[in-house]
Design goal:
- The longest helix is centred in the first third of the chain and has 36 residues, at 2-37.
- The strands form six sheets. Strands 3, 4, 5, 6, 7, 19, 20, 21 and 22 form a nine-stranded mixed β-sheet that branches. Strands 8-9-10-11-12-13-14-18 form an eight-stranded parallel β-sheet, with helices on both faces. Strands 23-24-25-32-31 form a five-stranded antiparallel β-sheet.
- Strand 9, helix 3 and strand 10 form a beta-alpha-beta unit.
- The protein has 600 residues and is α/β, with parallel strands linked by helices.
- Helix 6 (220-233) packs across helix 7 (252-266), helix 7 packs parallel to helix 8 and helix 12 (396-411) crosses helix 13.
- The chain folds into three domains: 2-37; 119-309 and 365-493, Metal-dependent hydrolases (TIM Barrel, Alpha-Beta Barrel), CATH 3.20.20; 518-599, Copper Amine Oxidase, Chain A, domain 1 (2-Layer Sandwich), CATH 3.30.457.10.
- The radius of gyration is 29 Å and the shape is globular.
- It contains 15 helices and 32 strands.
Length: 600
Protein backbone atom coordinates (compact mmCIF):
# COMPACT_ATOMS: atom_id res chain seq x y z
CA UNK A 1 0.00 0.00 0.00
CA UNK A 2 2.78 2.39 0.98
CA UNK A 3 4.58 1.52 -2.27
CA UNK A 4 1.44 2.25 -4.26
CA UNK A 5 1.05 5.61 -2.53
CA UNK A 6 4.74 6.40 -3.20
CA UNK A 7 4.38 5.42 -6.82
CA UNK A 8 1.24 7.57 -7.12
CA UNK A 9 2.99 10.51 -5.49
CA UNK A 10 6.00 10.18 -7.77
CA UNK A 11 3.71 9.90 -10.81
CA UNK A 12 1.77 12.95 -9.72
CA UNK A 13 5.00 14.85 -9.14
CA UNK A 14 6.26 13.88 -12.59
CA UNK A 15 2.98 14.89 -14.21
CA UNK A 16 2.94 18.21 -12.39
CA UNK A 17 6.58 18.71 -13.29
CA UNK A 18 5.91 17.96 -16.91
CA UNK A 19 2.96 20.36 -16.90
CA UNK A 20 5.12 23.09 -15.34
CA UNK A 21 7.92 22.41 -17.81
CA UNK A 22 5.50 22.33 -20.72
CA UNK A 23 3.91 25.55 -19.55
CA UNK A 24 7.31 27.13 -19.27
CA UNK A 25 8.17 25.97 -22.77
CA UNK A 26 4.91 27.33 -24.08
CA UNK A 27 5.50 30.64 -22.31
CA UNK A 28 9.05 30.75 -23.70
CA UNK A 29 7.80 29.91 -27.21
CA UNK A 30 5.19 32.62 -26.94
CA UNK A 31 7.81 35.01 -25.61
CA UNK A 32 10.19 34.16 -28.46
CA UNK A 33 7.33 34.54 -30.89
CA UNK A 34 6.41 37.87 -29.36
CA UNK A 35 10.01 39.01 -29.59
CA UNK A 36 10.07 38.17 -33.28
CA UNK A 37 6.80 39.96 -33.86
CA UNK A 38 7.63 43.04 -31.82
CA UNK A 39 9.49 45.75 -33.75
CA UNK A 40 13.18 46.23 -33.03
CA UNK A 41 12.42 49.31 -30.96
CA UNK A 42 10.54 47.17 -28.39
CA UNK A 43 13.16 44.43 -28.00
CA UNK A 44 14.06 43.66 -24.36
CA UNK A 45 17.46 42.13 -23.68
CA UNK A 46 19.40 42.19 -20.42
CA UNK A 47 16.71 44.32 -18.79
CA UNK A 48 17.54 47.24 -21.06
CA UNK A 49 14.77 48.45 -23.30
CA UNK A 50 15.55 49.49 -26.84
CA UNK A 51 15.11 53.26 -27.31
CA UNK A 52 11.60 54.17 -28.50
CA UNK A 53 10.69 54.60 -32.11
CA UNK A 54 11.99 57.71 -33.82
CA UNK A 55 8.95 60.00 -33.71
CA UNK A 56 10.18 62.11 -36.64
CA UNK A 57 7.82 62.20 -39.60
CA UNK A 58 10.12 62.16 -42.63
CA UNK A 59 9.19 63.60 -46.01
CA UNK A 60 10.14 60.28 -47.60
CA UNK A 61 10.98 56.92 -46.11
CA UNK A 62 12.67 54.25 -48.22
CA UNK A 63 12.23 50.88 -46.54
CA UNK A 64 13.70 47.40 -46.96
CA UNK A 65 16.45 48.60 -49.29
CA UNK A 66 19.77 46.96 -50.02
CA UNK A 67 21.84 49.93 -48.91
CA UNK A 68 25.18 50.37 -50.71
CA UNK A 69 27.48 53.18 -49.64
CA UNK A 70 30.87 53.00 -51.40
CA UNK A 71 32.61 55.41 -49.05
CA UNK A 72 32.22 53.03 -46.08
CA UNK A 73 32.06 49.86 -48.19
CA UNK A 74 28.63 49.15 -46.70
CA UNK A 75 26.32 46.63 -48.38
CA UNK A 76 23.45 46.07 -45.92
CA UNK A 77 20.07 44.47 -46.53
CA UNK A 78 16.81 45.69 -45.04
CA UNK A 79 17.68 49.32 -44.35
CA UNK A 80 15.41 52.31 -43.83
CA UNK A 81 16.44 55.69 -45.24
CA UNK A 82 14.70 58.82 -44.00
CA UNK A 83 14.70 62.01 -46.07
CA UNK A 84 13.95 65.44 -44.62
CA UNK A 85 13.90 68.33 -47.05
CA UNK A 86 16.94 68.00 -49.28
CA UNK A 87 19.10 65.78 -47.10
CA UNK A 88 19.31 62.27 -45.66
CA UNK A 89 18.33 62.39 -41.99
CA UNK A 90 18.36 58.69 -41.06
CA UNK A 91 20.02 55.45 -42.18
CA UNK A 92 18.83 52.68 -39.90
CA UNK A 93 17.29 49.23 -39.44
CA UNK A 94 14.55 50.76 -37.29
CA UNK A 95 11.10 51.38 -38.78
CA UNK A 96 10.60 55.05 -39.69
CA UNK A 97 7.47 57.08 -40.31
CA UNK A 98 7.13 59.11 -43.51
CA UNK A 99 4.57 61.21 -45.31
CA UNK A 100 5.56 59.21 -48.38
CA UNK A 101 6.85 55.65 -48.24
CA UNK A 102 8.63 53.63 -50.93
CA UNK A 103 9.00 49.90 -50.42
CA UNK A 104 12.42 49.13 -51.91
CA UNK A 105 12.30 45.39 -51.30
CA UNK A 106 14.54 43.80 -53.93
CA UNK A 107 16.08 47.13 -54.91
CA UNK A 108 19.54 48.61 -54.38
CA UNK A 109 19.70 52.07 -52.81
CA UNK A 110 22.80 53.80 -54.22
CA UNK A 111 24.08 57.38 -54.21
CA UNK A 112 22.94 59.44 -57.19
CA UNK A 113 25.21 59.00 -60.20
CA UNK A 114 27.57 61.85 -61.15
CA UNK A 115 28.57 62.67 -64.73
CA UNK A 116 31.54 65.04 -64.82
CA UNK A 117 32.12 64.85 -68.59
CA UNK A 118 28.96 66.18 -70.17
CA UNK A 119 27.46 69.31 -71.69
CA UNK A 120 24.79 71.93 -70.96
CA UNK A 121 21.85 70.45 -69.03
CA UNK A 122 19.27 70.93 -71.77
CA UNK A 123 15.83 69.57 -70.79
CA UNK A 124 15.69 66.92 -73.52
CA UNK A 125 19.03 65.38 -72.65
CA UNK A 126 18.50 65.69 -68.90
CA UNK A 127 15.53 63.32 -69.11
CA UNK A 128 17.71 60.52 -70.47
CA UNK A 129 20.41 61.21 -67.91
CA UNK A 130 17.92 60.93 -65.05
CA UNK A 131 16.52 57.69 -66.49
CA UNK A 132 20.11 56.43 -66.38
CA UNK A 133 20.39 57.35 -62.68
CA UNK A 134 22.38 60.57 -63.14
CA UNK A 135 21.63 63.27 -60.56
CA UNK A 136 24.57 65.66 -61.13
CA UNK A 137 25.64 67.01 -64.55
CA UNK A 138 29.06 68.73 -64.61
CA UNK A 139 30.77 70.29 -67.64
CA UNK A 140 34.37 69.52 -66.72
CA UNK A 141 35.23 68.67 -70.35
CA UNK A 142 34.50 72.07 -71.81
CA UNK A 143 32.35 74.31 -69.64
CA UNK A 144 31.80 77.98 -70.33
CA UNK A 145 33.90 81.08 -71.03
CA UNK A 146 31.82 83.16 -68.56
CA UNK A 147 30.89 81.34 -65.36
CA UNK A 148 28.72 84.09 -63.89
CA UNK A 149 26.57 84.34 -67.01
CA UNK A 150 26.29 80.55 -67.34
CA UNK A 151 25.22 79.93 -63.76
CA UNK A 152 22.75 82.84 -63.93
CA UNK A 153 20.91 81.20 -66.84
CA UNK A 154 20.28 77.97 -64.92
CA UNK A 155 19.62 79.61 -61.58
CA UNK A 156 16.78 81.58 -63.19
CA UNK A 157 15.33 78.39 -64.68
CA UNK A 158 16.80 75.39 -62.83
CA UNK A 159 17.24 72.12 -64.69
CA UNK A 160 15.97 68.90 -63.18
CA UNK A 161 19.43 67.88 -61.95
CA UNK A 162 22.45 69.44 -60.25
CA UNK A 163 24.81 71.38 -62.53
CA UNK A 164 28.22 73.02 -62.66
CA UNK A 165 31.03 74.02 -65.02
CA UNK A 166 34.73 74.30 -65.66
CA UNK A 167 36.71 77.07 -67.34
CA UNK A 168 36.41 76.35 -71.07
CA UNK A 169 39.86 77.38 -72.34
CA UNK A 170 38.97 76.64 -75.98
CA UNK A 171 36.09 79.13 -75.90
CA UNK A 172 38.04 81.76 -73.94
CA UNK A 173 40.85 81.63 -76.49
CA UNK A 174 38.33 81.96 -79.32
CA UNK A 175 36.74 84.99 -77.65
CA UNK A 176 40.20 86.56 -77.54
CA UNK A 177 40.54 86.07 -81.30
CA UNK A 178 42.68 82.92 -81.38
CA UNK A 179 42.04 80.10 -83.83
CA UNK A 180 42.53 76.49 -82.85
CA UNK A 181 45.97 76.27 -84.46
CA UNK A 182 47.30 79.66 -83.33
CA UNK A 183 49.83 79.75 -80.51
CA UNK A 184 49.28 82.59 -78.04
CA UNK A 185 52.64 84.33 -78.34
CA UNK A 186 51.38 87.70 -77.12
CA UNK A 187 51.94 87.60 -73.36
CA UNK A 188 49.42 90.36 -72.72
CA UNK A 189 46.75 88.17 -74.32
CA UNK A 190 47.71 85.33 -72.06
CA UNK A 191 47.37 87.67 -69.08
CA UNK A 192 43.88 88.53 -70.28
CA UNK A 193 43.08 84.82 -70.56
CA UNK A 194 44.47 84.20 -67.06
CA UNK A 195 42.38 87.04 -65.62
CA UNK A 196 39.22 85.61 -67.19
CA UNK A 197 40.02 82.19 -65.74
CA UNK A 198 40.48 83.65 -62.25
CA UNK A 199 37.28 85.67 -62.50
CA UNK A 200 35.42 82.54 -63.51
CA UNK A 201 36.82 80.71 -60.49
CA UNK A 202 35.69 83.57 -58.26
CA UNK A 203 32.24 83.10 -59.79
CA UNK A 204 32.10 79.40 -58.98
CA UNK A 205 33.91 77.51 -61.81
CA UNK A 206 35.09 74.13 -60.55
CA UNK A 207 38.14 73.48 -62.72
CA UNK A 208 40.18 74.34 -65.82
CA UNK A 209 39.42 72.37 -68.99
CA UNK A 210 42.01 72.01 -71.76
CA UNK A 211 41.66 70.08 -75.03
CA UNK A 212 44.95 70.27 -76.96
CA UNK A 213 43.88 67.70 -79.56
CA UNK A 214 41.06 70.01 -80.61
CA UNK A 215 43.21 73.11 -80.06
CA UNK A 216 46.73 72.25 -81.27
CA UNK A 217 47.71 75.89 -80.72
CA UNK A 218 47.40 75.44 -76.94
CA UNK A 219 51.08 75.45 -76.02
CA UNK A 220 52.65 73.40 -73.25
CA UNK A 221 53.88 76.55 -71.49
CA UNK A 222 50.35 77.95 -71.43
CA UNK A 223 49.09 74.69 -69.96
CA UNK A 224 51.76 74.98 -67.25
CA UNK A 225 50.68 78.52 -66.34
CA UNK A 226 46.99 77.59 -66.28
CA UNK A 227 47.84 74.66 -64.03
CA UNK A 228 49.57 77.04 -61.63
CA UNK A 229 46.30 78.98 -61.38
CA UNK A 230 44.50 75.72 -60.60
CA UNK A 231 46.97 75.03 -57.78
CA UNK A 232 46.49 78.54 -56.42
CA UNK A 233 42.74 77.98 -56.01
CA UNK A 234 42.82 74.28 -55.11
CA UNK A 235 40.95 73.07 -58.18
CA UNK A 236 41.90 70.37 -60.70
CA UNK A 237 42.76 70.50 -64.40
CA UNK A 238 40.77 68.41 -66.87
CA UNK A 239 42.27 67.17 -70.14
CA UNK A 240 41.20 65.87 -73.48
CA UNK A 241 44.72 64.76 -74.38
CA UNK A 242 46.75 66.05 -77.32
CA UNK A 243 47.00 62.81 -79.34
CA UNK A 244 44.73 59.80 -79.83
CA UNK A 245 46.70 57.44 -82.03
CA UNK A 246 49.26 54.81 -81.10
CA UNK A 247 51.21 55.43 -84.32
CA UNK A 248 54.09 57.75 -85.05
CA UNK A 249 56.02 60.12 -82.86
CA UNK A 250 52.99 62.16 -81.76
CA UNK A 251 51.08 59.38 -80.07
CA UNK A 252 48.92 58.48 -77.08
CA UNK A 253 51.80 57.79 -74.75
CA UNK A 254 53.40 61.14 -75.53
CA UNK A 255 50.07 62.81 -74.71
CA UNK A 256 49.80 60.98 -71.40
CA UNK A 257 53.38 61.93 -70.55
CA UNK A 258 52.63 65.59 -71.28
CA UNK A 259 50.02 65.89 -68.53
CA UNK A 260 52.08 63.78 -66.11
CA UNK A 261 54.94 66.24 -66.63
CA UNK A 262 52.60 69.16 -65.96
CA UNK A 263 51.43 67.54 -62.73
CA UNK A 264 55.01 66.92 -61.68
CA UNK A 265 56.19 70.46 -62.49
CA UNK A 266 53.27 72.34 -60.94
CA UNK A 267 51.75 70.01 -58.36
CA UNK A 268 48.40 70.38 -60.11
CA UNK A 269 45.69 67.75 -59.83
CA UNK A 270 45.12 66.17 -63.25
CA UNK A 271 42.08 64.37 -64.58
CA UNK A 272 42.25 62.61 -67.97
CA UNK A 273 38.98 62.41 -69.88
CA UNK A 274 37.79 59.29 -71.77
CA UNK A 275 41.26 57.76 -71.92
CA UNK A 276 40.24 54.65 -73.87
CA UNK A 277 39.45 56.87 -76.86
CA UNK A 278 42.19 59.45 -76.32
CA UNK A 279 45.32 58.35 -74.53
CA UNK A 280 45.40 54.57 -74.29
CA UNK A 281 43.87 53.12 -77.48
CA UNK A 282 45.90 50.05 -78.51
CA UNK A 283 48.50 50.82 -75.80
CA UNK A 284 46.32 50.50 -72.72
CA UNK A 285 48.80 48.62 -70.53
CA UNK A 286 51.68 51.00 -71.31
CA UNK A 287 49.51 54.07 -70.72
CA UNK A 288 48.23 52.86 -67.37
CA UNK A 289 51.70 51.74 -66.30
CA UNK A 290 52.78 55.36 -66.77
CA UNK A 291 49.86 56.62 -64.72
CA UNK A 292 50.39 54.01 -62.00
CA UNK A 293 54.02 55.06 -61.63
CA UNK A 294 53.03 58.73 -61.49
CA UNK A 295 50.45 58.03 -58.79
CA UNK A 296 52.98 55.97 -56.85
CA UNK A 297 55.20 59.04 -57.02
CA UNK A 298 52.43 60.98 -55.24
CA UNK A 299 50.94 62.82 -58.21
CA UNK A 300 47.18 63.36 -58.09
CA UNK A 301 45.95 61.84 -61.35
CA UNK A 302 42.52 60.33 -62.03
CA UNK A 303 40.87 59.06 -65.20
CA UNK A 304 37.42 58.48 -66.65
CA UNK A 305 36.05 56.33 -69.47
CA UNK A 306 32.71 55.69 -71.09
CA UNK A 307 31.91 51.95 -71.23
CA UNK A 308 31.61 51.50 -75.01
CA UNK A 309 33.79 50.16 -77.82
CA UNK A 310 33.25 53.21 -80.05
CA UNK A 311 33.91 56.91 -79.79
CA UNK A 312 32.06 59.75 -81.47
CA UNK A 313 32.88 63.32 -82.39
CA UNK A 314 32.22 66.02 -84.95
CA UNK A 315 33.49 65.58 -88.50
CA UNK A 316 34.67 69.20 -88.70
CA UNK A 317 36.96 68.79 -85.67
CA UNK A 318 40.75 68.46 -85.80
CA UNK A 319 40.34 64.78 -85.04
CA UNK A 320 39.22 64.25 -88.65
CA UNK A 321 42.01 66.24 -90.23
CA UNK A 322 43.96 64.63 -93.09
CA UNK A 323 45.29 61.16 -92.30
CA UNK A 324 42.55 60.14 -89.87
CA UNK A 325 42.13 56.73 -91.54
CA UNK A 326 45.75 55.82 -90.84
CA UNK A 327 45.78 57.35 -87.33
CA UNK A 328 42.72 55.44 -86.14
CA UNK A 329 42.75 52.43 -88.45
CA UNK A 330 39.25 53.32 -89.69
CA UNK A 331 37.52 53.57 -93.06
CA UNK A 332 34.54 55.63 -94.20
CA UNK A 333 32.21 52.67 -93.66
CA UNK A 334 33.22 52.49 -89.98
CA UNK A 335 31.61 55.90 -89.45
CA UNK A 336 27.89 55.81 -88.66
CA UNK A 337 25.29 58.57 -88.57
CA UNK A 338 23.69 58.39 -85.10
CA UNK A 339 20.08 57.29 -84.75
CA UNK A 340 20.18 55.62 -88.15
CA UNK A 341 21.75 52.66 -89.88
CA UNK A 342 23.58 54.91 -92.38
CA UNK A 343 27.33 54.49 -92.69
CA UNK A 344 29.50 56.97 -94.59
CA UNK A 345 31.13 56.99 -97.99
CA UNK A 346 33.81 59.37 -99.15
CA UNK A 347 31.10 61.51 -100.74
CA UNK A 348 28.85 61.68 -97.68
CA UNK A 349 31.89 62.19 -95.43
CA UNK A 350 32.71 65.41 -97.29
CA UNK A 351 29.10 66.59 -97.21
CA UNK A 352 28.63 65.90 -93.51
CA UNK A 353 32.02 67.34 -92.66
CA UNK A 354 30.90 70.69 -94.07
CA UNK A 355 27.74 70.37 -91.94
CA UNK A 356 29.70 69.58 -88.78
CA UNK A 357 27.79 66.35 -88.15
CA UNK A 358 28.76 64.12 -85.24
CA UNK A 359 29.46 60.51 -86.22
CA UNK A 360 30.07 57.28 -84.31
CA UNK A 361 33.35 55.49 -85.08
CA UNK A 362 32.44 51.82 -84.83
CA UNK A 363 35.10 49.41 -83.58
CA UNK A 364 37.41 52.25 -82.60
CA UNK A 365 38.00 51.11 -78.99
CA UNK A 366 39.02 47.49 -78.24
CA UNK A 367 36.59 45.90 -75.78
CA UNK A 368 39.41 44.30 -73.79
CA UNK A 369 40.87 47.77 -73.19
CA UNK A 370 37.57 49.01 -71.75
CA UNK A 371 37.60 46.08 -69.34
CA UNK A 372 41.25 46.65 -68.46
CA UNK A 373 40.67 50.32 -67.66
CA UNK A 374 37.57 49.59 -65.59
CA UNK A 375 39.61 47.49 -63.18
CA UNK A 376 41.83 50.41 -62.19
CA UNK A 377 40.66 51.79 -58.82
CA UNK A 378 41.08 55.43 -59.87
CA UNK A 379 39.09 55.08 -63.12
CA UNK A 380 35.44 56.11 -63.05
CA UNK A 381 32.58 56.63 -65.47
CA UNK A 382 31.61 59.73 -67.45
CA UNK A 383 29.55 59.89 -70.64
CA UNK A 384 31.08 62.72 -72.72
CA UNK A 385 27.58 63.27 -74.09
CA UNK A 386 24.15 64.76 -73.56
CA UNK A 387 21.46 64.13 -76.14
CA UNK A 388 19.90 66.96 -78.13
CA UNK A 389 16.53 66.94 -79.86
CA UNK A 390 18.26 66.30 -83.20
CA UNK A 391 19.47 62.95 -81.77
CA UNK A 392 22.91 63.53 -83.29
CA UNK A 393 24.66 61.78 -80.42
CA UNK A 394 26.17 58.57 -79.10
CA UNK A 395 24.10 56.09 -77.02
CA UNK A 396 26.47 56.80 -74.13
CA UNK A 397 24.37 59.93 -73.52
CA UNK A 398 21.49 57.70 -72.37
CA UNK A 399 23.09 54.51 -71.08
CA UNK A 400 26.64 54.85 -69.72
CA UNK A 401 25.82 54.39 -66.05
CA UNK A 402 23.30 51.55 -66.26
CA UNK A 403 25.59 49.81 -68.73
CA UNK A 404 28.50 49.94 -66.28
CA UNK A 405 26.45 48.21 -63.59
CA UNK A 406 24.41 45.87 -65.79
CA UNK A 407 27.01 44.74 -68.30
CA UNK A 408 30.36 45.02 -66.56
CA UNK A 409 29.34 44.13 -63.00
CA UNK A 410 26.35 41.78 -63.32
CA UNK A 411 26.79 40.15 -66.73
CA UNK A 412 30.57 40.01 -67.17
CA UNK A 413 31.82 40.28 -63.59
CA UNK A 414 34.68 42.53 -64.66
CA UNK A 415 34.10 44.64 -61.54
CA UNK A 416 32.01 44.11 -58.41
CA UNK A 417 28.70 45.85 -57.80
CA UNK A 418 30.37 47.89 -55.06
CA UNK A 419 33.12 48.96 -57.49
CA UNK A 420 30.58 49.84 -60.16
CA UNK A 421 28.57 52.05 -57.80
CA UNK A 422 31.76 53.74 -56.61
CA UNK A 423 32.74 54.46 -60.21
CA UNK A 424 29.41 56.13 -61.02
CA UNK A 425 29.00 58.06 -57.76
CA UNK A 426 31.62 58.26 -55.03
CA UNK A 427 34.81 58.47 -57.12
CA UNK A 428 33.65 61.44 -59.26
CA UNK A 429 32.40 63.17 -56.09
CA UNK A 430 35.78 62.58 -54.47
CA UNK A 431 37.56 64.03 -57.51
CA UNK A 432 35.63 67.32 -57.06
CA UNK A 433 35.83 67.54 -53.26
CA UNK A 434 39.04 69.56 -53.27
CA UNK A 435 37.20 72.22 -55.27
CA UNK A 436 33.66 72.09 -53.92
CA UNK A 437 32.06 71.63 -50.52
CA UNK A 438 28.89 70.70 -52.39
CA UNK A 439 30.55 67.50 -53.63
CA UNK A 440 31.33 66.33 -50.08
CA UNK A 441 27.60 65.69 -49.73
CA UNK A 442 27.30 63.83 -53.04
CA UNK A 443 28.29 60.30 -53.97
CA UNK A 444 27.34 58.74 -50.63
CA UNK A 445 24.24 57.96 -48.57
CA UNK A 446 24.74 58.91 -44.93
CA UNK A 447 23.17 61.13 -42.32
CA UNK A 448 23.69 64.69 -43.53
CA UNK A 449 24.39 63.89 -47.20
CA UNK A 450 22.29 65.38 -49.97
CA UNK A 451 19.29 63.22 -50.77
CA UNK A 452 20.47 62.26 -54.26
CA UNK A 453 19.50 58.59 -54.34
CA UNK A 454 18.95 55.98 -57.05
CA UNK A 455 16.87 52.85 -56.45
CA UNK A 456 17.47 50.16 -59.06
CA UNK A 457 16.88 46.48 -59.69
CA UNK A 458 20.28 44.85 -59.96
CA UNK A 459 18.80 41.85 -61.76
CA UNK A 460 17.54 43.95 -64.68
CA UNK A 461 19.53 47.20 -64.85
CA UNK A 462 21.03 47.71 -68.33
CA UNK A 463 21.36 50.32 -71.08
CA UNK A 464 18.88 50.16 -73.99
CA UNK A 465 20.13 52.96 -76.23
CA UNK A 466 21.95 51.85 -79.41
CA UNK A 467 23.67 53.52 -82.37
CA UNK A 468 20.47 53.07 -84.39
CA UNK A 469 18.24 54.36 -81.60
CA UNK A 470 20.19 56.64 -79.27
CA UNK A 471 17.27 58.00 -77.22
CA UNK A 472 15.98 55.09 -75.11
CA UNK A 473 15.58 55.08 -71.33
CA UNK A 474 17.73 52.57 -69.47
CA UNK A 475 16.06 49.58 -67.85
CA UNK A 476 16.05 48.74 -64.16
CA UNK A 477 16.20 52.26 -62.72
CA UNK A 478 13.05 52.48 -60.57
CA UNK A 479 13.28 55.70 -58.54
CA UNK A 480 15.58 58.74 -58.62
CA UNK A 481 15.70 61.38 -55.90
CA UNK A 482 17.49 64.68 -56.48
CA UNK A 483 17.86 66.96 -53.45
CA UNK A 484 15.05 65.10 -51.75
CA UNK A 485 12.62 65.40 -54.66
CA UNK A 486 11.32 62.30 -56.42
CA UNK A 487 12.09 63.16 -60.04
CA UNK A 488 11.79 59.70 -61.60
CA UNK A 489 9.38 56.90 -60.79
CA UNK A 490 9.07 53.73 -62.84
CA UNK A 491 9.68 55.33 -66.22
CA UNK A 492 7.96 58.65 -65.51
CA UNK A 493 9.90 61.92 -65.20
CA UNK A 494 8.54 64.45 -62.69
CA UNK A 495 9.56 67.89 -63.94
CA UNK A 496 10.36 69.42 -60.55
CA UNK A 497 13.36 71.61 -61.42
CA UNK A 498 15.14 69.82 -58.63
CA UNK A 499 18.69 70.80 -59.58
CA UNK A 500 21.02 73.06 -57.60
CA UNK A 501 24.24 74.75 -58.71
CA UNK A 502 27.54 73.12 -57.79
CA UNK A 503 30.20 75.76 -57.17
CA UNK A 504 33.60 75.95 -55.55
CA UNK A 505 34.45 76.72 -51.92
CA UNK A 506 34.92 80.41 -52.63
CA UNK A 507 31.25 80.73 -53.58
CA UNK A 508 29.65 77.77 -51.78
CA UNK A 509 31.47 77.33 -48.44
CA UNK A 510 30.88 74.22 -46.38
CA UNK A 511 27.65 75.31 -44.69
CA UNK A 512 24.33 73.48 -44.67
CA UNK A 513 20.93 75.01 -43.89
CA UNK A 514 19.95 75.21 -40.21
CA UNK A 515 17.91 72.02 -40.59
CA UNK A 516 21.19 70.12 -40.90
CA UNK A 517 21.79 68.49 -37.48
CA UNK A 518 25.56 68.14 -37.73
CA UNK A 519 28.42 70.31 -36.61
CA UNK A 520 31.94 69.59 -35.41
CA UNK A 521 33.76 70.02 -32.12
CA UNK A 522 37.43 69.17 -31.71
CA UNK A 523 37.31 66.04 -33.81
CA UNK A 524 33.96 64.89 -32.49
CA UNK A 525 30.64 64.80 -34.27
CA UNK A 526 27.78 66.82 -32.80
CA UNK A 527 24.43 65.26 -33.63
CA UNK A 528 21.08 66.02 -32.03
CA UNK A 529 22.88 67.87 -29.24
CA UNK A 530 24.97 64.82 -28.36
CA UNK A 531 28.65 64.08 -28.91
CA UNK A 532 29.75 61.18 -31.09
CA UNK A 533 33.19 59.74 -31.84
CA UNK A 534 34.46 57.68 -34.76
CA UNK A 535 34.95 54.00 -33.93
CA UNK A 536 38.04 53.93 -36.13
CA UNK A 537 39.56 56.94 -34.36
CA UNK A 538 38.65 55.55 -30.93
CA UNK A 539 40.20 52.18 -31.79
CA UNK A 540 43.43 53.92 -32.75
CA UNK A 541 43.39 56.05 -29.60
CA UNK A 542 42.74 53.13 -27.23
CA UNK A 543 44.73 50.54 -29.21
CA UNK A 544 41.89 48.08 -29.74
CA UNK A 545 40.96 46.03 -32.80
CA UNK A 546 38.46 47.58 -35.21
CA UNK A 547 36.93 45.94 -38.29
CA UNK A 548 34.22 47.50 -40.48
CA UNK A 549 32.55 44.70 -42.43
CA UNK A 550 30.60 45.36 -45.61
CA UNK A 551 27.36 44.01 -44.08
CA UNK A 552 27.36 46.73 -41.42
CA UNK A 553 28.90 44.60 -38.67
CA UNK A 554 31.43 46.51 -36.57
CA UNK A 555 34.00 44.67 -34.46
CA UNK A 556 35.39 46.99 -31.79
CA UNK A 557 37.65 45.24 -29.33
CA UNK A 558 35.49 42.55 -27.74
CA UNK A 559 32.23 44.07 -28.94
CA UNK A 560 30.16 43.31 -32.01
CA UNK A 561 27.62 45.92 -33.12
CA UNK A 562 25.76 46.77 -36.29
CA UNK A 563 25.03 49.90 -38.27
CA UNK A 564 21.35 50.73 -37.84
CA UNK A 565 20.89 48.81 -34.54
CA UNK A 566 21.57 49.67 -30.90
CA UNK A 567 21.93 46.01 -29.94
CA UNK A 568 25.50 44.86 -29.35
CA UNK A 569 27.24 41.77 -27.99
CA UNK A 570 30.30 41.36 -25.75
CA UNK A 571 31.50 37.83 -24.94
CA UNK A 572 28.12 36.40 -25.83
CA UNK A 573 26.20 38.84 -23.65
CA UNK A 574 23.69 41.12 -25.39
CA UNK A 575 22.99 44.68 -24.39
CA UNK A 576 22.11 48.01 -25.98
CA UNK A 577 23.80 51.24 -26.92
CA UNK A 578 22.07 54.47 -26.03
CA UNK A 579 22.10 55.43 -29.73
CA UNK A 580 22.66 53.41 -32.89
CA UNK A 581 25.91 53.91 -34.84
CA UNK A 582 25.78 56.74 -37.39
CA UNK A 583 27.28 56.66 -40.90
CA UNK A 584 28.94 60.01 -41.59
CA UNK A 585 31.77 61.13 -43.88
CA UNK A 586 33.11 57.67 -44.49
CA UNK A 587 33.21 56.60 -40.83
CA UNK A 588 30.95 54.98 -38.27
CA UNK A 589 30.32 57.14 -35.19
CA UNK A 590 28.88 56.18 -31.78
CA UNK A 591 27.85 58.19 -28.74
CA UNK A 592 30.75 58.97 -26.42
CA UNK A 593 28.79 57.49 -23.50
CA UNK A 594 28.41 54.28 -25.53
CA UNK A 595 32.14 54.21 -26.20
CA UNK A 596 32.71 54.04 -22.45
CA UNK A 597 30.37 51.04 -22.25
CA UNK A 598 32.31 49.22 -24.96
CA UNK A 599 35.67 49.97 -23.37
CA UNK A 600 34.63 48.79 -19.92
Amino acid sequence: MKNNKLISSIAAFVVVGMIVLLSACIRQERHDSDLQAVPEAEFVIGFQREPPFDDTVYDYVILNARYINPETGSDIEGMYIGILGDYVAAVTRRPLTGRNVIDATGLVAAPGFIDIDTYDPIPFGVRYKIADGVTTNLLMHGGAPDAAAWYAIYERSPPNMNYGISNFITAIRANLGYGINTIMTNRSDFERLSNIVEINILNGALGISMSPEYVPGLHYDDMLRLSEIAVKYGIATYYHLRYSTHLGENNNLKAVQEVIDIARQTGASVHIMHITSTGSTYVVEEAFDMIDRARDEGLDITVDIYPYDSWATYLNSARFSAGWQDRFGLTYSDLQVPNSSETLTEETFNIYRRQGLLVIANGSIPENEVQYALQKPYVFIASDQILGVNLNGHPRGAGSFSRTIGRYARELGVITLMDAIAKVSFLPAQRLESASADMKRKGRIEVGSDADIVLFDYSTIIDRATNDNVAVFSEGIKYVFINGKLVYENGVINELRAGKPIKNYLVHPEIRPQTQPFGSLTGYLVYDGKYFVSLADAASEYDVEYVNNTDGKQIFGNAELFVGLTRYNIHGQNSHLLHEPIVYRGKIFILIDDLEKLLH
